[in-house]
């Protein structure tokens, strides 16, 4: 089986025989195995439970296989008249109704099996030129289990909405950020990591869901375990667990109605995982990951702005409000509303400049703070008059 070639899901199903292997054993039974193989952590090091043996798979191929296996487990344990491929396509079609590019990608082929493979490829697609691969694996792939939980809900009720996934990601965001902030002393890398996490979710929010509200909205034991495991992973940004983090995790476990054994197991498992696979999995908070991300992104944004300076200057001169806001950003932090206006107006400009379309791709929002930082420095002619006007006001 070659997970990078057409027809691989059909071969996977033939090898696994899911109707026999998974029947009567839902995700709760296999959750521990998905954690042990790294799927829950977003760092897939082995095929879950070694159901498929092969040492030649790349990390993204292992991730694809594990995602399909998780979806198969959910599918096998729910009565449905539709085949697996149709249910997967309908599910992703439903939660991506507002994303025209994604829908066009799905319907590129009329064969439902091809569509399913296209979806799985798209879902874990990593663009090396856009953001650092190691970091993006954490953000994109650690949240894949949300897809699995949502797919299970879809199979149960016959319906699903984007709001369901948004709510789950809002809960995870709140819990993970509270975990990262529980550290008594934060380095600049910790702060950068918090910022990267906030910028990298599928759905951007103006405010983070309050911790108590997040806890209140956790609606199942399986989701509780998942949230705790992501929190435990977040404490390992520096390969140590300080007293504040221990207290936070214990409190979180109680708030999520989990046993002390489950809470202790979450901390112990992530420690063993990172120690066992230290050569394969860089720590989430590794200075190299964060530094490489910023270094690579800085160079790319710098070049793109320089190469398109004339066109950008022309567009900026026609956007007085944007120029004023960018000028203000050089002397103070912009409010959430001002940041929203800047982002919207910049994206409008990027749409009109083909070579800047990279900022419109998934993950492009990560680069916008760098764009805001560099534009006033690299295109001063677009700002001189507006700075004077701003001062006069």
Distance between the termini: 67 Å
Please work out how many helical segments DSSP would assign: 21
Which word captures the global form?
globular
Mean pLDDT across residues? 82
Contiguous uncertain segments of 5+ residues: 127-135, 386-393
Helix and strand element order: HHHHHHHHHHHHHHHHHHHHH
Sheet of most strands: none
- Rg over CA atoms: 22 Å
Description:
The radius of gyration is 22 Å and the shape is globular. Helix 10 (162-181) runs antiparallel to helix 11, helix 13 crosses helix 15 and helix 14 (243-255) crosses helix 15 (260-276). It has 21 helices and no strands. The model is unreliable at 127-135 and 386-393 (pLDDT under 50). The chain is an all-alpha fold. It folds into 3 domains: 1-157, no CATH class; 161-276, no CATH class; 290-392, no CATH class. Helices cover 65% and strands 0% of the residues.
Core attributes:
0% strand, globular, single chain, 393 residues, LETM1-like_RBD, ribosome binding, mainly alpha, 3 domains
Helices, strands, pairings?
Elements: H1 8-16, H2 18-21, H3 27-36, H4 59-76, H5 84-95, H6 100-106, H7 112-123, H8 133-142, H9 144-157, H10 162-181, H11 188-200, H12 211-216, H13 221-234, H14 243-255, H15 260-276, H16 287-307, H17 309-317, H18 320-329, H19 336-352, H20 368-378, H21 384-392
Helix pairs in contact: 4-9, 5-7, 10-11, 10-13, 13-15, 14-15, 16-20
């Amino acid at each position: 089986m070659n997970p990078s070639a057409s027809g691989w899901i059909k071969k996977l199903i033939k090898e696994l025989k899911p109707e026999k292997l998974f029947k009567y054993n839902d995700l709760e039974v296999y959750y521990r195995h998905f954690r042990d193989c790294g799927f829950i952590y977003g760092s897939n090091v082995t095929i879950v439970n070694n159901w498929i043996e092969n040492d030649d798979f790349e990390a993204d191929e292992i991730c694809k296989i594990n995602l399909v296996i998780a979806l198969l487990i959910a599918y096998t344990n729910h009565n449905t008249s539709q085949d697996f491929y149709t249910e997967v396509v309908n599910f992703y079609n439903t939660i991506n109704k507002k994303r025209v590019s994604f829908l066009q990608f799905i319907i590129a082929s009329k064969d439902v099996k091809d569509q399913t493979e296209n979806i799985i490829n798209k879902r874990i697609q990593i663009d090396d030129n856009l953001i650092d691969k190691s970091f993006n694996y954490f953000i994109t792939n650690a949240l894949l289990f949300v897809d699995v939980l949502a797919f299970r809900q879809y199979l149960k009720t016959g319906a699903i909405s984007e709001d369901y996934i948004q709510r789950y990601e809002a809960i995870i965001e709140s819990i993970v950020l509270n975990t990262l902030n529980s550290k008594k002393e934060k380095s600049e890398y910790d702060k950068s990591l918090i910022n990267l996490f906030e910028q990298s979710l599928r759905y951007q929010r103006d405010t983070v869901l309050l911790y108590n509200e997040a806890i209140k909205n956790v609606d199942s034991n399986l989701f509780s375990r998942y949230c705790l495991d992501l929190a435990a992973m977040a404490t390992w940004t520096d390969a140590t667990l300080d007293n504040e983090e221990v207290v936070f995790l214990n409190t979180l476990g109680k708030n999520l109605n989990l046993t002390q054994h489950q809470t202790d197991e979450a901390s112990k498992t992530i420690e063993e995982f990172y120690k066992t696979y230290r050569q394969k999995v860089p720590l989430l908070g590794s200075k190299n990951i964060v530094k490489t991300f910023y270094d690579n992104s800085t160079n790319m944004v710098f070049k793109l702005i320089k190469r398109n300076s004339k066109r950008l200057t022309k567009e900026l001169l026609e956007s007085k409000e944007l120029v004023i806001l960018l000028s203000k950003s050089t002397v103070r932090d912009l409010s959430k509303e001002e940041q929203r206006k800047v982002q919207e107006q910049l994206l409008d400009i990027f749409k009109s400049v083909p070579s800047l379309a990279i900022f419109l791709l998934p993950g492009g929002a990560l680069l916008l703070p760098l764009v805001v930082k560099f534009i006033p420095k690299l295109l001063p002619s677009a700002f001189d008059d507006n700075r004077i006007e701003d001062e006069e006001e």
